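Task card 7
Instruction: Convert sequence to C-alpha cells.
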Amino acid sequence: MRIALIADVFPPLRSSGAIQLRDLSHELVRQGHHLTVMIPAPDIEQPWLLEKLGGVEVLRLKAPRTKDMSYARRTVGEFLMPFAMRRNLRKSPLADVRWDGVIWYAPTIFLGPIVNTLKRASGCPSYLIIRDIFPEWAVDMGLLGRGLPYRFLKAVETYQYSVADAIGVQTPANLPYFSRAGLKPDQRVEVLQNWLAQAPNTGCSISVAGNELAGRTIFVYAGNMGVAQGMGVLIDLAARLRSRSDIGFLFVGRGSDAQLLRDEAIRRELDNVVFYDEIAPEEIPGLYAQCHVGIVALDPRHKTHNIPGKFLTYMQSGLPVLASINTGNDLIQIIEDERVGRVCTDHSVNSLEHLATQLVDEVQGDADMPARCKALCARLFAPGAVVRQITAALTR
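Output:
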C-alpha cells in the first residue's frame, strides 16, 4: 500500500511518541508498504524538505512552532499547523500522489484538516491512533475548565474523530468514552496496543557504577516529568527510604516539573536520589541494563486510561515496575496478572514504601521475573502485529 503517516513528532526528537512512530514506520516498510511520513518542521527555511531517515521517506513541511512555549501560543500554533502543512505539501514533489491509506497519530488533536484533504483527494480510508484523550485528561488534571477554551478544543477533537474511518485506542477502558463520542455507525473503534521494537544495548553515557548510587538496587524513571505524571510522591518515597543504603532512585529526563523535583531532593538533602538530563533513545537499553526496577507514574486524577510507553521499555529490558497510577487503569490487571511488579492507585507514600520494599525482595529472590517481563513485551507489544492490524482496517 502507498501510505501517508502524519504526526507532529518524529526523530531526531527524543519523545516517546517520536520513538513509537519511528518503530511503526520501520515495521510498515519492513512489511513491504511504500510509506511517507509527513511532519511539521518549524526550523526549515524552505516550504518542504524530503529526506530518507533510517530507510523511511520523511517529508518535513514548514509550519509554526508548537513545542516549549505557553499553552496559549502552543494552541494557536497547533491550530495553524495543519493548514501550513497542507499549503506546503502542495508545493512539494508529493503534491499529486494518490494514497491508499492515511494513518495519523494523536496527540496532537489538530491534524484533521490535512488528513481530510488527503482522504478526499485520494478517495482512501484513514486510521487514527489515539494515545491520550484530550482535552478530557486536561480537565481531569485541573488544567482546563469547561468554558470557552474547552469547547473550542472539544470541537477540534470531534472534528478529528469525524475524519477517521477507524480509531485505535490504547486500552479496553478507553472504549466506553467513544461509545459516547457521537461516531457514525460505519466508524470502527478498536483496541490498538502500544508497541516497541527491539533495541540493542549500545551503551549509555550515564554510569551508575560511577555515581553515589553504585552498588544499590536502582529504581529508575526515564521520561517526561510533568503535571500528568504527579511525581512529587516519588520524592516522598525516596525520603522514606533514605535509611535503606541498599536502595537508590535515578531520574532521567526533562519536563515542566523536572527542576521542581530536583530542588525538592536538594532541599531534603536526599543522598539516595540522582537526576540526569534527557538522553538519546538509543542509550535507554544501556541505562536500564544498570537498573533493577522501573517506575511508572500517572497522576491519580486521570479518568482516561493509557499504558505509558515507558512501561514497554521497562518490560523489554526485563525490569519489573513500581507503578503509582489512576484507579481503573487497565495496566493494573496486566501488572498483577503477569506478575511483573507492584502497583498502587491511592497515590500514598505509605503504600509505595510497602510495595517498593516488597519488590526489592522479589527482585533479589525471583530469578524468573526478568524473563516474564521480556515475554510480556514480546507477546503483547510487538510492532508487527500492530502494523497488520492497522493495514487490515485500512483494507477492510
